[in-house]
Design brief:
Layout lengths: L1 E12 L2 E10 L2 E6 L5 E6 L4 E4 L1 E6 L12 H10 L2 E6 L11 H14 L3 E4 L1 E2 L8 H6 L5 E4 L13 H14 L3 E4 L3 H9 L6 H7 L2 H18 L3 E3 L5 H12 L4 E6 H5 L2 H7 L12 H12 L5 E3 L27 H13 L3 H15 L16 E11 L18 E11 L2 E5 L2 E2 L21
Parallel strand pairs: 1-4, 1-5, 6-7, 7-8, 9-10, 10-11, 11-12, 12-13, 13-14
Antiparallel strand pairs: 1-2, 2-3, 5-15, 15-16, 16-17, 17-18
Helix pairs in contact: 1-2, 7-8, 8-11
The protein binds zinc ion.
Length: 451
């Protein structure tokens, strides 16, 4: 008898949808069959869609050091409530930042103690950290994050051109990707300095689309010349995605990430909602949102992440330009894709599974995750496409119960999240028993150990 059978659901498999029972043994998928034998535990999934657990490759849980902003205990609960089973934490907003092996060790220990989902870690690429990259790679980071513009945190300075160049070369040697926040420092700094007022529109105008396109183009050039793997985080425009797709067609090893909020909200929403919807790059005009969806539907977006970056509510109040930039949406990525993607634009569920699970696992070489396949970890989310819900503040599992998604209605609800065979979220409640584990990329052949 197997440990667990998820019975009677419609499984979203790599090759399509199929009515199947999923048998789970020792936390792994032991079989996907039309009629599994009895399990010691059974989950009735009739009428539900069964997808691989969401892998959120981009978020900030700010632990250790800024857990008053979020923390892995609360953040991972919110991820689980959104169907997530694995996240990669960014190297900044925690204090100190993860720019060397010692800080990676500290963060890993803190997250192992706190997270209910599995997790991986990004290392930081900042001026001075290139010599630390090999040791961070030894510790199992998924890649290295760099800012092409000011990060907003003095302790995580932007990568100047030489740092980016050296970092890409070193990352290529280590066989790991570099993730870039792509906005032009020159343009954003100059436009911010000559900002006339302090209104929301003034801020939006200080970070125009061209600032993103310019930085993406330069990052692609650098990656191509250094033969590095490049991951462009939170691309906010269809034109930015198209640049990445064109470079890929020419042989550049690039993956394009966007975030749920760029697909869901537009600039008019920031003007309505205020700093709760402030982020960088900022939300764009409705035509850009339309173009971004077009690129996603064309298959040019690889990964959709949350870039969950919360803070204390007080830091979101007052002067808009000074307010913390970051959207707290870790719980809403899958609902956004189900509602605005599947229901509204006929985005196939297999594509949603690819954007949120298969592509993240493949790009970052996380073995046995990202798809419903025999032998993989039993990371599963059960979704009811017939259920409509309106997100309430009290539904949020994150530390501070504020999110621009509160009050929004979604067609498609997350009923249960299973991490390595253990239910961690069910029917609105966190029921986790066990703790999340650290995951690291699978080894590749590289010359990193050679002199
Ligand atoms: Zn971020």
């Amino acid at each position: 008898m197997t440990d667990l059978v998820i019975r009677g659901g419609t499984a979203v498999l790599p090759d399509g949808l199929r009515r199947a029972d999923i048998a789970i043994e020792d936390g792994r998928i032991a079989g996907i069959d039309t009629d599994a034998g009895a399990g010691r535990e059974e989950i009735d999934a009739r009428g539900l869609m069964v997808l691989p657990g969401v892998i959120d490759v981009h978020l900030h849980f700010n632990e250790p050091g800024r857990t008053e902003w979020e923390g892995a205990a609360t953040g991972s609960r919110a991820l689980a409530a959104g169907g997530g089973t694995l996240f990669f934490d960014m190297p900044l907003n925690s204090t100190p930042c993860c720019v060397n092996a010692r800080e990676i060790d500290r963060k890993r220990a803190a997250l192992e103690a706190a997270s209910i989902t599995d997790f991986g870690l990004w290392g930081g690429l900042v001026p001075g950290s290139v010599p630390e990259m090999a040791e961070m790679a030894d510790r199992g980071v998924v890649g290295f994050k760099a800012f092409m513009c000011d990060s907003g945190l003095p302790e995580f300075p932007r990568a100047d051109d030489a740092t980016l160049y050296d970092g890409l070369r070193e990352a290529a040697r280590l066989g790991l990707p570099v993730a870039v926040h792509a906005e032009s420092e020159e343009l954003v700094r100059a436009l911010s300095q000559r900002m006339k007022g302090r209104t929301i529109r003034d801020f939006l105008d200080s970070r125009p689309v061209v600032a993103e396109l310019d930085a993406i183009q330069r990052a692609l050039l650098f990656a191509g010349e250094t033969h590095a793997s490049l991951h462009i985080v939170h691309i906010s425009t269809g034109r930015g995605v198209a640049l990445a797709a064109e470079a890929r067609a020419k042989g550049v090893d690039v993956s394009a990430e966007t975030c749920a909020h760029y697909l869901y909200f537009a600039d008019e929403d920031v003007e309505r909602l205020g700093a709760i919807a402030k982020c960088a790059p900022p939300l764009r005009d409705p035509m850009d949102v339309h173009e971004l969806w077009h690129e996603l539907l064309e298959g040019h977006v690889d990964i959709v992440a949350s870039d969950h970056s919360p803070t204390e509510p007080a830091r979101k109040a007052g002067d808009f330009v000074a307010a913390w930039g970051g959207i707290a949406g870790v719980q809403s990525t899958l609902p956004v894709l189900l509602d605005r993607g599947h229901q509204e634009r006929a985005l196939p569920l297999e594509r949603i599974a690819a954007l949120t699970a298969a592509a993240p696992a493949r790009r970052f070489r996380i073995a046995r995750k990202g798809a419903l396949v025999r032998g993989h970890d039993a990371d599963v989310v059960l979704v009811d496409l017939e259920q409509t819900f309106t997100l309430r503040a009290e539904d949020l599992q994150q530390r501070h119960k504020t999110s621009p998604y509160v009050g929004q209605t979604f067609r498609g609800a997350i009923r249960r999240t299973v991490r390595r065979g253990e239910t961690i979220f069910a029917d609105g409640r966190i029921v986790a028993q066990g703790r999340g584990r650290f995951v690291r990329p699978a080894q590749v052949q590289s010359d990193a150990s050679e002199p």
